[in-house]
Write a structure and sequence with these properties.
The complex is a heterodimer of chains A (about 280) and B (about 600). Chain A has about 280 residues and is α/β, with parallel strands linked by helices. In chain A, helix 3 crosses helix 4 and helix 4 crosses helix 6. Classes of the chains: A alpha/beta (about 280), B alpha+beta (about 600).
Chain lengths: ~280, ~600
């Protein structure tokens, strides 16, 4: 556990409190002084955050605090929004994903993403899973078959669907659809898996399955998960970032955040006094 | 606050309802004692229909509007179906003796009441006048289709009831449908078979007539197909000569050689032409040995070759089975042959063909054009003022009168584009235009332009309805924008796009006004698709069922004669559009099922 200090020049408010559990593998994503505006409204204020490689990082906070926005910056999904401007950098290895000349498509291939609502395509289960490979131009059936099985096994879905791979994915249950989306997210073997409230539309049993899955995937992938459900964050994550009004209030070891937070705002939130 | 108000209102309504059985007295049997009216003399409020409390007063208006619409449409369809389906049913021929001693014969087509004028009344006797007087000055009359246009100079005649002395239905009255001059009502006065006069015998004549029709069709086949082909080849060689002159010059060696070759071939074709002509003449000479003399009711006769009789039947001497046979044979003739007698008789095959070909061609043009435009507008263009203006303009285009598109099509497509194409690729045919006039290509392009707003609007809506989450899912997989559109957005939007296409097709197939300017003609000698290279002739004029209706109904020499054909053609056009739409809807529903299932 160590407390990092941010550059005092960018600070106009209470600095973030850090007590991050460092990963042995190092840092996967390094967010530095990151600001974001929707038009004239600033949505993120000076975020500094090191996402640890191979660990699960949870982002919690009340609605509208910017946690989804931050997550969607990591694979530049926010590019779709007009009138968006950013400042600062997010480093992956040695390059800035918002730097000039970055191949966004290549970047997104390194970052699998799972959304709030299951969003399988109107295709067969098989085609859904191998979609990232298909768009990559891979057509060899052996590779596709192998990837499909591996991804579905990783997503703990293989046994349920192995006999109906050619059926439409839209006929599956919500929980299955979400696991299918996870399988799709990891099919192209990304480094990071971004999850935007993956269980918010699922029932408790499906949620439990997804959480087990996250525990299984940990280590293979760096996982960043946005969640409204604090118990979930406490159960699945190694580090947790608490965000409020576009600022990262406290970022550190999950156990500490939930049992002994360093800031009052965090304490109030995790104990349910507001939010 | 609002809720409370609603609640209390609802309670009041409930209270009122409870009072209904109570006020009825006898209805109180099943109602608890609490609800019997108190005996204090307070006037029990009866249930007056407070329409806003009963609820949904507007339901009547909505339901009524729907019912009215359905009744109007059903009535319209019923009228067209009744008139269309009964047209070909054989009607009896009445022989009417008039009081002035003349006799007429014809099919009674319709009747009506009218008020005879002074001049008519003046010619009548007292008894007749008294009869009309009793009817308050009105008299009944019937319209007889007397046919025999070549003798009477008219096809129809009104006969007032007071003129009639006697009506009979003689069994030997026949209706003859002739290749020329329309129908003939009368009897057979003489029959010549193989050059010898024979007594009339219905079965014999029937046999000989079908044999004669076979000869007639043979002649037509030779003239149409074989001589037609030769004409086509000769025309091609003539153009080759012209092309050689334009390209190489008539004096140059190469030009002279080409011209000589073409001339040689023309001579060859002309020799073949003479052979065929001889064959035709031979058949014709034989055909002249089979003749029939027709006699109308007053004894005037017309002699004609048997092969000129398309169909004949004793109208007053038919069993229901015979009539059914004639009915279906006339329908078959209608859908499978070409028109004759200025379109008022015969079939509409070229018009069916033209309508279908033009509509399909239009869909081929409009589909990619509309969908690509919608894709750009919805997926690529930055949503702002300019896109809004474009979108509004596209919507407004749908409201431009179709004849304006016709004018544009003629000016831009036919004259400007077609004229340029002619100069570049068909200089040898000038001054005769090839593409520089109305044709099926320009007609379909004009209609494509007319219907493209419909496709754009529908496609845009379908694209907008594809959930954002799906696009994001695809993009997050590392798909490019085009891959996302191609694999995720378009398949999901396809049923909606198909709906737009169906609407466009329905509009295009029923459109007539612009077509009159850009390629539809009253009678097209050749179909746009035939056996001659290049097989599909997009420069040709064509016939169209919609224009056919207009032409037969309002442009023919006798609109009364064309009237039944108007209904039959309308029926056919409706059936054709319904068939095409049903096919498209089936395809769409199949697509819908494929992508069915909700997001959740």
């Amino acid at each position: 556990m160590s407390v990092a200090t941010a550059d005092p020049n960018t600070r106009t408010f209470d600095p973030t409190v850090y007590h991050v559990k460092k990963s042995a593998e190092g840092v996967a994503l390094d967010i530095k002084d990151f600001n974001l505006w929707y038009g004239h409204a600033q949505a993120l204020h000076g975020i500094n955050m090191e996402i640890q490689k191979g660990e699960v990082t949870a982002l919690i906070g009340p609605s509208g605090c910017g946690k989804s926005t931050l997550l969607r910056c990591l694979n530049r999904m926010n590019d779709l929004i007009d009138e968006l401007s950013i400042d600062g950098s997010i480093m992956v290895d040695d390059f800035d994903i918002y730097g000039p000349g970055v191949d966004v498509i290549a970047l997104r291939k390194r970052m699998g993403m799972v959304f709030q609502k299951p969003n399988p395509f109107a295709m067969s289960i098989y085609d859904n899973v191998v979609y990232p490979l298909r768009v990559d131009g891979i057509t060899r059936k052996s590779i596709l078959d192998e990837t499909c099985e591996r991804a579905l096994r990783s997503a703990a879905l293989w046994d349920e669907v192995k006999d109906r791979l050619k059926e439409s994915a839209l006929g599956m249950s919500g929980g299955q659809q979400q696991r299918l989306c996870i399988a799709r997210g990891i099919a192209s073997d990304p480094e990071v898996l971004l999850m935007d409230e993956p269980c918010s539309a699922l029932d408790p049993i499906a949620t439990a399955k997804i959480e087990d899955l996250i525990a299984d995937l940990k280590g293979h992938y760096t996982i960043v998960i946005v969640t409204h459900n604090m118990q979930q964050a406490a159960r699945v994550s190694d580090n947790t970032g608490f965000m409020y009004l576009g600022r990262l209030i406290e970022y550190g070891h999950t156990d500490t955040i939930f049992t002994n937070p360093k800031k009052k705002q965090t304490l109030d939130y995790v104990t349910g006094r507001f939010g | 606050m609002d809720e409370n108000a609603n609640l209390s209102q609802a309670e009041r309504a409930l209270e009122r309802q409870r009072e209904v059985p109570a006020s009825g007295g006898a209805g109180a049997a099943g109602v608890s004692a609490r609800e019997t009216p108190p005996k204090t003399g307070r006037r029990v409020r009866t249930y007056t229909a407070d329409i806003s409390a009963v609820g949904e007063p507007a339901l009547w208006a909505f339901g009524g509007a729907l019912a009215l619409g359905i009744i109007l449409i059903a009535g319209f369809l019923a009228m067209i179906a009744w008139n269309g389906f009964t047209t070909f049913w054989p009607k009896p021929i009445a022989q009417v003796e008039l009081r002035d001693g003349t006799t007429i014969a014809g099919e009674p087509t319709r009747g009506g009441t009218y008020r005879p004028g002074e001049s008519v009344l003046a010619q009548l006797n007292d008894q007749q006048r008294a009869e009309i007087e009793a009817e308050l000055g009105f008299a009944e009359r019937t319209l007889y289709k007397t046919a025999n246009f070549d003798i009477y100079g008219d096809d129809f005649r009104w006969v007032s009831d007071f003129e009639v002395a006697e009506i009979t239905y003689p069994a030997d009255m026949h209706l003859f449908q002739r290749q020329q001059w329309g129908d003939f009502v009368g009897r057979v006065a003489g029959l010549v078979i193989a050059g010898e006069e024979v007594p009339f015998d219905y079965d014999l004549m029937q046999r000989e007539q079908s044999e004669a029709r076979r000869r007639f069709n043979e002649i037509r086949n030779i003239e149409r197909n074989e001589i037609g082909a030769l004409n086509h080849y000769i025309e091609r060689e003539r153009l080759n000569i012209r092309r050689a002159e334009l390209r190489h010059g008539a004096e140059s060696e190469r030009g002279a050689e080409l011209i000589a070759q073409s001339r040689e071939r023309i001579a060859e074709y002309q020799a073949q032409f003479a052979d065929l002509q001889a064959r035709v003449n031979e058949i014709r000479a034989n055909d002249r040995n089979y003749r029939v003399t027709l006699e109308e009711v007053n004894g005037e006769t017309r002699e004609t070759e048997l092969s000129q009789i398309v169909r004949f039947y004793p109208a007053n001497d038919l069993t229901t089975l015979d009539k059914t046979g004639i009915y279906f044979s006339r329908w078959w003739e209608f859908v499978s042959t070409e028109p004759r007698e200025a379109n008022t008789q015969g079939g509409v095959l070229p018009a069916i063909f033209g309508t279908v070909a033009m509509t399909l061609l239009m869909v081929i043009f409009v589909a990619p054009f509309g969908v690509i435009t919608a894709l750009y507008l919805r997926e690529y263009a930055k949503q702002g003022r300019i896109t809004s203006i474009v979108r509004i303009s596209v919507n407004n285009l749908a409201g431009v009168p179709s004849i304006v598109y016709g004018v544009f099509g003629l000016g831009f497509f036919a004259y400007a584009m077609g004229g340029t194409i002619d100069q570049l690729f068909y200089p040898e045919a000038l001054p005769n235009p090839t593409f520089g006039k109305g044709g099926i290509l320009w007609a379909s392009l004009t209609l494509a332009l007319l219907t493209v707003p419909v496709v754009i609007v529908a496609s845009e809506e379908a694209l907008a309805a594809v959930p954002r989450s799906m696009r994001e899912g695809s993009l997050a997989c590392g798909a490019s924008k085009w891959q996302t559109i191609r694999y995720v957005v378009l398949p999901k939007a396809m049923p909606g796009i198909m709906t737009g296409m169906i609407l466009a097709m329905a509009r295009g197939a029923g459109e007539v006004a612009p077509l009159m300017l850009v390629g539809v003609v009253k009678l097209a000698p050749a179909l746009p698709i035939d056996g001659f290279y290049p097989f599909i002739h997009l420069d040709r004029s064509f016939m169209h069922l919609g224009f056919h209706i207009f032409d037969v109904g309002f442009q023919s020499r006798n609109s009364e004669a064309g009237k039944p054909m108007v209904f039959v053609t309308t029926l056919l056009l409706l059936a054709l559009i319904v068939t095409m739409n049903a096919t498209a809807i089936t395809v769409r529903n199949r697509l819908k099922r494929k992508y069915a299932g909700s997001q959740f």
